[in-house]
């Protein structure tokens, strides 16, 4: 099949390369000319395991092409929209990039083209896209919703072996094209109407976010009653009705999806006069949870003015350089507001744009450099690089030995043996 992927970010690039690997001819289109030039030269603009090798292979095989315009493209079977849908001030998904692509596709799309959204879009968007194509005289174009579930850091595996494929379609023709594109994947398929497909995506992310906020609430109670949330989660997760994933207490979720999708679903519900009380609480708990280290530090030091705090981890999770909605940035902003000097360490993120912070904070990839003369350290992102430090060396480098493990991944005994003071989340361990 000949496929366009419009929007060559985390989702678009991975999807395009995986479709190429499945044997299709793929054109990735992006308005960012520099990105397109770099990709054409074999350079991957983000950190994602396996992506440079996959790009190299598919360029060599001649199955992947990059363009910033829709020129010299013809006889295309399907176009996947993978542009961003960032939140507006009010928390709704901003669809302006999606609709701008729709205008382009109406202009350049070949007759009978299937246009499918991979971007996460509010329920009813496929219908709005349909209306726009009709208005633009393109009733021949098919519209479908094929939501994306890949996880950054594991994106290639998730795309080649998805847990499920959701085809939100309104015609047999659209279904046939989607089946042909994915025919070499052995995943379960759910065929439904586009609004249902759109809702499956939001409901899935909202549910996972709920699990995270739930276990964080349990952790906060554990802290107060002397129970260990790690063991509570282990005991809960062994029940197959609950399952172990997304039950690790920590500083809450971040990234480009959960924060915006939870808020968008609250808005989607609000637009039909439904108050999604539970999800509103999930969002509130998550925001509060990010500040757990701040309160613990204030408790310990009373005043943070003049102190140096080292934050380990800038990306919102390990395995990616994505810093969108990263708890680390929120925490950095609050620490700076309390008069602390913040140093950041990350193995792949090179600079940290902290909103409301005035200047960008510098980021080093060397934890020992970041910890030198620091008064406190907070492990925010559980990169492997931070888990097995030379704790004695760390103790000798720091001015004060205070550590906060924001992901409950450090071995308390080893840190304490080295003379460090360790606080964590919900493990009943007090500094
Ligand atoms: P991204 O910001 O990394 O990439 C979006 C790309 O679209 C950018 O390169 C931008 O230049 C390009 N673009 C914007 N307008 C364009 C236009 N008119 N024409 C051509 N290109 C245009 O975004 P992302 O993280 O890949 O997310 C894309 C969508 O997929 C979002 O709706 C997101 O919610 C959803 N999603 C993301 C993930 C994830 O893990 N990142 C997972 C599942 C779903």
TrEMBL record:
The keyword Transmembrane helix does not apply. It is an enzyme of class 1 (oxidoreductase). Transmembrane segments: none annotated. Its EC number is 1.1.1.22. The keyword Oxidoreductase applies. It catalyses: UDP-alpha-D-glucose + 2 NAD(+) + H2O = UDP-alpha-D-glucuronate + 2 NADH + 3 H(+). GO terms for molecular function: NAD binding; UDP-glucose 6-dehydrogenase activity. The active site is at residue 257. Pathway: Nucleotide-sugar biosynthesis; UDP-alpha-D-glucuronate biosynthesis; UDP-alpha-D-glucuronate from UDP-alpha-D-glucose: step 1/1. Keywords: NAD, Oxidoreductase. It comes from the Bacteria. SUPFAM superfamilies: 6-phosphogluconate dehydrogenase C-terminal domain-like (SSF48179), NAD(P)-binding Rossmann-fold domains (SSF51735), UDP-glucose/GDP-mannose dehydrogenase C-terminal domain (SSF52413). Belongs to the UDP-glucose/GDP-mannose dehydrogenase family. This is UDP-glucose 6-dehydrogenase. It comes from Alicyclobacillus ferrooxydans. The lineage of its organism: Bacteria, Bacillati, Bacillota, Bacilli, Bacillales.
């Amino acid at each position: 099949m000949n496929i366009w992927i419009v929007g060559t970010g985390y989702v678009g690039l991975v999807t395009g390369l995986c479709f190429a690997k499945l044997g299709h001819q793929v054109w990735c289109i992006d308005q960012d000319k520099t990105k397109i030039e770099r990709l054409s030269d074999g350079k991957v603009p983000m950190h994602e395991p396996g992506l440079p090798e996959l790009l190299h292979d598919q360029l060599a095989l001649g199955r992947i092409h990059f363009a910033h315009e829709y020129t010299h493209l013809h006889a295309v079977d399907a176009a996947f929209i993978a542009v961003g849908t960032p939140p507006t001030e009010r928390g709704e998904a901003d669809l302006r990039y999606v609709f701008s692509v729709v205008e382009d596709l109406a202009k350049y799309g070949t007759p009978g083209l299937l246009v499918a959204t991979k971007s996460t879009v509010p329920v009813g968007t496929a219908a709005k896209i349909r209306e726009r194509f009709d208005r633009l005289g393109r009733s021949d174009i098919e519209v479908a919703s094929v939501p994306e579930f890949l996880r950054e850091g594991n994106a290639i595996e998730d795309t080649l072996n998805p847990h499920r494929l959701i085809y939100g379609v309104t015609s047999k023709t659209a279904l046939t094209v989607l089946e042909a594109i994915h025919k070499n994947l052995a995943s379960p398929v759910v065929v439904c109407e586009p609004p249902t497909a759109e809702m499956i995506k939001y409901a899935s992310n909202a549910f996972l976010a709920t699990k995270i906020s739930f276990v964080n609430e349990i952790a906060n109670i554990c802290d107060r009653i002397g129970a260990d949330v790690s063991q509570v989660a282990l005991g809960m997760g062994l029940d197959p009705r609950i399952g172990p994933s997304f039950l690790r207490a920590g500083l809450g979720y971040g990234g480009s999806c959960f924060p915006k999708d939870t808020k968008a679903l609250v808005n989607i519900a609000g637009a039909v006069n439904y108050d999604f009380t539970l999800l509103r609480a999930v969002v509130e708990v998550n925001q509060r949870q990010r500040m757990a280290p701040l309160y613990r530090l204030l408790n310990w030091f009373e005043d943070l003015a003049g102190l140096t705090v080292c934050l380990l981890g800038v990306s919102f999770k390990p395995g990616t350089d994505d810093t969108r909605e990263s708890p680390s940035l929120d925490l950095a902003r609050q620490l700076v507001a309390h008069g602390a000097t913040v140093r950041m360490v990350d193995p792949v993120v090179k600079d940290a744009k902290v909103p409301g912070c005035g200047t960008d904070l510098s980021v080093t990839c060397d934890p020992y450099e970041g910890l030198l003369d620091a008064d406190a350290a907070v492990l925010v992102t559980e990169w492997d690089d931070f888990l097995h430090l030379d704790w004695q060396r760390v103790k000798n480098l720091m001015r004060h030995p205070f550590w906060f493990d924001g992901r409950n991944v450090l071995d308390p005994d080893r840190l304490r043996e080295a003379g460090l003071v360790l606080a964590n989340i919900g493990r009943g361990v007090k500094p």
